[in-house]
Amino acid sequence: MNAMIAGLALFFAVHLLPVHPRWRESLIGRFGQPVYTALFSLLSLGGLLLIAHGYGQVDERILWTPPAGAGPLAIAVMPAALILLLAAYLPTWLRARLRHPMLIGIALWSAVHLLATGRLATTLLFGAFLTYALADIALARRRRQMIPGGTPRLHWDAIAVAGGLLAWWLLRRWHEDLFGVAVTG
After folding, report:
1. pLDDT, mean of residues 114-143
2. pTM for the complete prediction?
3. How is the chain split into domains, by residue range?
4. Closest by Cα among 98, 44, 73, 164 to 36
């Protein structure tokens, strides 16, 4: 469990760095954008690897029984979460209107998974991601927008929808192989 907690701490420490734009700009000024981006990526990957490694070390303790309908709710919400994740990186109307579609997508993903599970490991994992997404949305109002600009075009929204639905279909198909949990509901 220590590895998972260390991984979560590392991953979120790196991702909350942009909350303090002066720290981010100072690091970019000191190392340059390519080195900053490489360090950000490597530390993020290191955090994810620690999370994955530590996840299997957490005992299977059940904290609560998921409510009836939580599985089908997760299946119903996940396409929207995946569409929002993709829309965050394209010049979509979704991004222009929502401002933080990636964080909203992460919040949806983590909330429905938190509700549909009840084990200690999943509570730590999805609870941490939900807390991060909600905190970052709240803190984003205090800093300037860092999502790249671009004129929204409807065809990018269509690509986000198609890509999100494709990702949803692939995840449903391979969820058990990738994560050891069958999608039910």
Report:
1. 90
2. 0.88
3. 1-58, 60-185
4. 44
